Amino acid sequence: MAAAGRKPLVKDFNHFITCYLCRGYLIKPTTVTECLHTFCKSCIVQHFEDSNDCPRCGIQVHETNPLEMLRLDNTLEEIIFKLVPGLREKEQQELDFWKKNQPRENGQAENARRQRIGLPDVRGDYDDGGGDGDDGGDEDCHRSDPQIAICLDCLRNTGQSGETSVTDLMKRFIRCSSRVTVGTIKKFLSLKLKLPSSYELDVLCNGEIMGRDHTLEFIYMTRWRLHGENTYPMVLEYRPRIDFG
């Protein structure tokens, strides 16, 4: 009777509020939409660098881009902060520490946070990928997302009849949301280069054609960094689509 009426302890909920990967309390709880298992954001992002499967149940989350199947659970985060005394303050102190002690050459207040989830610092003078009046860009789109810098290089030696229609960008260095997809990059290139709507482009990383649904974050983690490329920004190449038919 006494046991049934006792006040619940935090440890009674540990099974629901701890991360399967790091065994600590869930920080930025992030749920895999395919199986609804939840992990720390930094833990599950790092796991998906090497695997497309859920680390808990083994289900394949996505064939090529598991990061697209992640969703932050802000409600669970608030519940954990209420259950665990001092956790919110500890996390805030850590964030304040990184903000205070990170390099400030270009005023990038989020660089330390970006490093925790596996993205590099954003530095330098880049085209922000926004609109310039006639290219249809949306300057506010994804502005709150983690940013990534890329270099867009033109591949000329394709041997295609339409290759002369594809030229170098005036600004090859672009800064945009890490969640931008290859499909959006293709639209950006078509607008900047004033290509006809029927003109098809391929976007490549390390010589491999990227799928239009791949995000820049996914490409950086699985095609650029994991192949031993330590230079930054990440280089993507574009060329006229080659029809092998």
Task: Give a short summary of the structure.
With 245 residues, the protein is α+β, with helices and mostly antiparallel strands. It has helices at residues 14-17, 41-47, 74-83, 87-101, 111-116, 182-192, 216-224, and strands at residues 29-32, 38-40, 70-72, 147-154, 173-177, 201-205, 208-209, 234-240.
CATH superfamily of the domain at 147-156 and 165-240: Phosphatidylinositol 3-kinase Catalytic Subunit, Chain A, domain 1
Structural class: alpha+beta
Which percent range describes the beta-strand content? 15-25%
End-to-end separation? 76 Å
Largest sheet: 5 strands, mixed
Query: Which spans of ≥5 residues are poorly predicted at pLDDT below 50?
Result: 103-109, 120-125, 131-142, 158-164
Q: Helix segment count?
A: 7
Number of strands: 8
Oligomer: single chain
Q: Name the average pLDDT.
A: 76
Large-scale geometry: elongated
CATH level-two architecture of the domain at 147-156 and 165-240: Roll
CATH fold-type name of the domain at 147-156 and 165-240: Ubiquitin-like (UB roll)
Element string (H = helix, E = strand):
HEEHEHHHEEHEEHE
Radius of gyration: 22 Å
Q: What is the class of the domain at 147-156 and 165-240 in the CATH system?
A: Alpha Beta
How do the strands line up in the largest sheet?
Answer: 5-4-8-6-7
Helix content: 25-40%
Function: Component of Polycomb group (PcG) multiprotein complexes; the complex class is required to maintain the transcriptionally repressive state of some genes.
Keywords: Metal-binding, Nucleus, Repressor, Transcription, Transcription regulation, Zinc, Zinc-finger
Subcellular location: Nucleus
Region (Disordered): 96-140
